[in-house]
Amino acid sequence: MLTRILHTIVSVPGVYDRVQWLVGADTVRSRMSRQLSMLEPIPGLALDIGGGTGLNRVLLPETWTYVCLDNDPLKLQGLSGKHVDAMALLGDATRVPVANGSVGLVFCTAVAHHLSDDLFTALLGECERLLQDAGYFIFLDPIWAPSNRVGRLLWKYDRGSHPRTATALWSLISQHFKLQHWELFAVYHQYVLGIGVK
After folding, report:
1. What is the pLDDT, as a whole number, of residue 19?
2. Which of 52, 84, 107, 123 has its CA at a distance of 20 to 30 angstroms from the CA of residue 60?
3. Closest by CA position to 81, among listed 9, 17, 10
4. What are the backbone dihedrals phi and psi of residue 91, each rounded to the nearest 5 degrees, phi first?
5. DSSP 3-state assignment of 48?
């Protein structure tokens, strides 16, 4: 009951953004920003799978067309209030209405732990389909690390019910992408940050 009430409160866009800040989203995005700055620039379309309120928009130059795909219309309303240049797309990450090979960069951050293995595999296949040959797949997710007490507490209240180890994530992602970067780090959760290419 308490968990359901917390989930309802956190689904409000402004509250969601503040909770993300409290659990270290700024630190996480700072690491992502450093890695993105080392990539060869690719003009075009950036697709943020499960992008919520568009927290990843700030990681990209204004020249990118930023599309935030999410299945929560309330979060997409929060995106529209923050980023007038962003495109909101309500939909399913396993069936994205975007042409093959039309995306230069795909973000998949904090999504995998919400999906079963079958759905996550379908999402990876869809990202592979969407990505340009020279494009990048940017992956970030908290990982299952039972020895981390704070992480265990956060998992207790997280809506995601499919936490995975870094090894399990590597195994699934490497079936679709060649991983150029893979790092583990901790804020409160332990995380993995990966960058893949076709």
Report:
1. 53
2. 123
3. 17
4. 175, -170
5. strand
State the pLDDT at residue 4: 64
Residue 187 pLDDT greater than 80, yes or no: yes
Task: Residue 145: give its domain's CATH number.
Answer: 3.40.50.150
CA distances from 136 to 41, 102, 132, 187, 195 (A): 10, 12, 8, 25, 7
Burial of 41 from C-beta contacts in 10 A (0-12 / 13-18 / 19+): exposed
Range of the domain at 127: 2-197
88: tokens are 């909101």
pLDDT in tens, 39-79: 987 778 999 999 999 989 999 988 899 999 999 998 899 89
Instruction: Please tell me the total count of domains within the chain.
Output: 1
Q: Nearest 5°: phi and psi at 142?
A: -70, 150
How far apart CA 62 and CA 43 sit, in angstroms, is 11
Q: Angle between the 117-130 and 166-173 helix axes, to the nearest 10 degrees?
A: 50
Mean pLDDT, the chain, whole residue set: 86
Nearest to 46 by CA among 6, 87, 91, 3: 87
The whole-number pLDDT of residue 117 equals 96
Distance CA 37, CA 92 (A): 29
